[in-house]
Amino acid sequence: MRGHGRIIEYALSSLSRRKLKNLSVAAIFSILIAVLSSILFLMHAYKTETLKLLDSSPEIILQNMSAGRHELIPLEYISTLSGIAGVGKIVPRYWGYYYDSLTSANYTLMAVDADDASDKNKQDVKLINGRIPQTVGECAIGSGVAAIRQIGLNDDFFMTLGTEQNVNLKIVGIFTSNSAIVTNDLVVLTKNDLVKFFNMPVDKATDITIEVNNPSEVTTVARKIRRAYPDSRPILKIELTRTYDNIFNWRGGIVLTMFFGAIAAFMIFVWDKATGINARERQEIGILKAIGWETSDVLQLKFWEGTIVSLSSFLTGLILAYAHVFYFNAQFLAPVLKGWSVLFPKFQPMPYIDLYQIFVLFFLTVVPYVAASIVPSWKAATSDPDAVMR
Amino acid sequence: MDAVIRAEDVSKVFNAGLADEVRAVAGVSVEIPRGRITVLKGPSGSGKTTLLGLIGCMSRPTEGKIIVEGKDVAKLPERFLTNVRRKTFGFIFQHFNLIRGLTVSENVMLPLYPTDIDSKQMQQRMEEILGKLDLTAKLNVKIEKLSGGQQQRAAIARALINEPAVVLADEPTAHLDTKLSGDLLNIITALNKEGKTIVIATHDPLIYEKPYIDNIIEMRDGAVKEAALL
Amino acid sequence: MIFHPGVLALVVGSVIVLVMAFFSVFLGIRIIIGWDITKSTAKQLILERQTYLITTIMKYVLGFQILSLFLFVYTADDIHKLFVGAMCTTGSLNANLIGWTVLFAKIVIFFLCAVWLAINRVDEMAEDYPLVKLKYKYLAALVPVIVLEGYWQLNYFLGLRANVITSCCSSLFSDEGLTVASSLASLPVTAAMYMFYGAAAVELALLSVLLRKGSVSSPLRYISGVWSLVFFVISIASIVAFVSIYYYETPVHHCPFDILQKQYMFIGYPLYGSLFGGILFSLGAAVIEKFKKIDSIRTQIHHTQRRWTIMSIVLLIVFIIIATWPVVFSNFRAYD
């Protein structure tokens, strides 16, 4: 046990005598870990943010299907729905997508009911500069839309779908970037403007949200709705949650896989560095063996050297990633991930520490590093003790 | 005669079976008497350093027996061979083989790092030995800042830290001038007086012509040419 | 499912372990063929040095295997949200047929690797390495198990469909279930306690008798080895049956994984750590009993057995204390 401590001490002094080499390995390793951790941290932040928003969404969203595709839903369904036991508030929703050829971006258009606006106001008041539109001709836009159109509060906002369908709206509110993950590409306008713009029939809505009083009855209610309207598709909140969870895990995994090339390249670099121990290092190990260190003592020394380098790089990498994602808004990573959407949301993720993720990162980085350094350190450790005499 | 080490018909072959096969030591039998100074003498390439390594459990012979304190170590796996070496031998190398960047005291204690010895005891031993060799003032000086003679003494101190029964020296005067060589011999004879067995491999007449050298084994071409116990 | 970062990490870990295991078996077979301790040829020296490499690799394999066991449990916990009805790790493991198999395989490999290292350690104590061929044959036999485990693990994750409806732990462990786990959970608490403390008493008694007997070789060693395995199974069963509910302070929550979480002060780590460690040392001491007939290591084995027996006793006592703590000190009563 005593020997153990002294070997660790010697490992430290041995590393410090080759500062340049070890620092360069550690620096590269740290950066690699920082990149991987940034990806995972960011994905996790997106995931939690999205799931948090889903929390306040209704238990069931009912869509109408026609020929297997999403179709507008007749408002007459509502009276039947309200007859089902356990069903709470039922609200029809009006929304759609608009491709703006001017800026080559997709916007999500969503209607607020003018009557209902006062209610919504309370909820969204923190997320908006200005206010939610209340009368025809007003709108509120996401910060992404504002940025790409280079417009601000009280400016005019024009959208067109040909000569018949166009609106010119006054911007009364801009969503703050804190909420950007959902509001980035959003344009909120009154129901009348939206119906007119999309030329929707008056007796139909895009979908219907249904609240269920007792959460454990959601599946039963959904089943009853299906029975009443076999054509409809009730989407449960729990399903959404699961799907988002899956999607974000999947995205993170895909990116990690892509970076696997980088890890592999790094491993080859480490292999090279560690096998190509320079003459002086070889000489030192030769001396150690000559003066009575046993092969397993040298192996232990190498183990500690590797552990010190990899753990300190791991910590440095994690701290770098933490700062990068949570204090610098993932500035270096965002351009890479932006490819997924023109209006990639910019938001300030909530700082968090998740032990599971750290464990996963450890497994993906330190374990391969340690495994890759076994053979080179063994080679160094099994040099002939009498080599220094020749 | 009480022999600490007996080598019986020992051979060491390098690169066996290859074109550049070398028989560095061929069928050598020698005895190292306890408590005396033995010199392995001979020109370079005569196999004396290889023999010294075999005697000192640095490597295993290809054939033959090496009996250290009554135990044949010729077939021991490296792990156990190292153990025997740690307990029995102290080595003084031709090129000092000190580790640059470490202080004198660290260099001296290095052989004991992986052992079970208590750190305080190790420290004590180091201070005692460095005191004897007049290096106390240089305790915390980096080894490369020392003069040649001081480095030689540090190397000797390191050879003594495990309190060996046998001290082996490989061409110890090769890099020293006459005065320093004389100092070295004084230290070695002093150690011998303390009861340590000494084996020196050298071709320096300054050493083997000294009247108090007991036992000279002359080597040539990997074999013993002449062994005389004076 | 395969692109979940945790799954990716597990698969990467398995591949690394497999490569290392294959490599060491390859070296091991060369050693079995070429080994001749009576020669000091250059070839023998190379083989001897390769034993260091294999030992090092196996130590890392054991380390990775322990980490992978934990990562597997954590990952199962992390993905439980993806399954309807899965409330925790147990639910994820139930999501397809091989979830539990993978977990058991990981535990078995952990014990097999550790036993290999125990044999290896004893072998390295003797100057003639008497067990060299035996230990590398054992190593070769270990590899198929590792391959199988990697294959099962991959299949488990490939077979996971996020919308599969699984039973959560409360229904798995409910009284109506027919699974082994549910019958464990439905064990009456008092009966489970009698069984656990009885088994623990036998285990500790066996170990202390062996400790006192010292160097006398005895069939009791083997009995204690077998009993350790029995006690291991009983302990896991008891954790499900009563230790868990005392820690959770709810009569229906039997999950053996939740105690690893923060809200239970991570108590699961010392609990399982001391159990696995204690069983391992007593198992190791039993396995090496067989080699006592070899002269060159007999005394070494005595010393080692003594050390390991003491370690085992200490760890198992720690385990029993942690398992008993809430039973004695919590206000919760599972029976009345």
Walk me through this protein's architecture.
The complex is a heterotrimer of chains A (390), B (230) and C (336). With 390 residues, chain A is α+β, with helices and mostly antiparallel strands. Chain A has two domains: 198 residues, no CATH class; 178 residues, no CATH class. Helix content of chain A is 54%, strand content 19%. In chain A, strands 5, 6, 7, 8, 9, 10 and 11 form a seven-stranded mixed sheet that branches. In chain A, strands 1, 2, 4, 13 and 14 form a five-stranded antiparallel sheet that branches. A two-stranded antiparallel ribbon of chain A has the order 3-12. The radius of gyration of chain A is 30 Å and the shape is elongated. Chain B has a domain of 160 residues: P-loop containing nucleotide triphosphate hydrolases (Rossmann fold). In chain B, 31% of the residues lie in helices and 28% in strands. Chain B is globular. The mean pLDDT of chain B is 91. Chain C is mainly alpha-helical and 336 residues long. Chain C has two domains: 168 residues; 164 residues, no CATH class. In chain C, helix 4 runs antiparallel to helix 5. Chains in contact: A-B, A-C, B-C. At the A-C interface, helix 9, helix 11, helix 13 and helix 14 of A face helix 1 and helix 2 of C.
A few lines on this structure:
The complex is a heterotrimer of chains A (390), B (230) and C (336). Chain A is an alpha+beta fold and 390 residues long.
Could you name the key traits of this structure?
heterotrimer; A: 390 residues; alpha+beta; 2 domains; seven-stranded mixed sheet; elongated; C: mainly alpha; 73% helix; 0% strand
Helix content estimate of chain B = 25-40%
Q: What structural class do the secondary elements of chain C suggest?
A: mainly alpha
Secondary structure tally, helices of chain B: 7
What gap, in angstroms, lies between the N and C termini of chain C? Answer: 45 Å
Mean pLDDT of chain B: 91
At the first level of CATH, the class of the domain at 35-53 and 89-229 in chain B is Alpha Beta
Oligomerization state: heterotrimer
Amount of beta strand of chain B: 25-35%
Pick out the low-confidence regions of chain B.
none
Arrangement of strands in the largest sheet of chain B: 6-7-8-3-9-10
The major pleated sheet of chain B works out as: 6 strands, mixed
The N- and C-terminal alpha carbons of chain B lie at a distance of 13 Å
Structural domains of chain C: how many: 2
Percent helix range of chain C: over 70%
> From the helix content, strand content and strand pairing of chain B, which structural class follows?
alpha/beta
Gyration radius of chain C, to the nearest Å? Answer: 22 Å
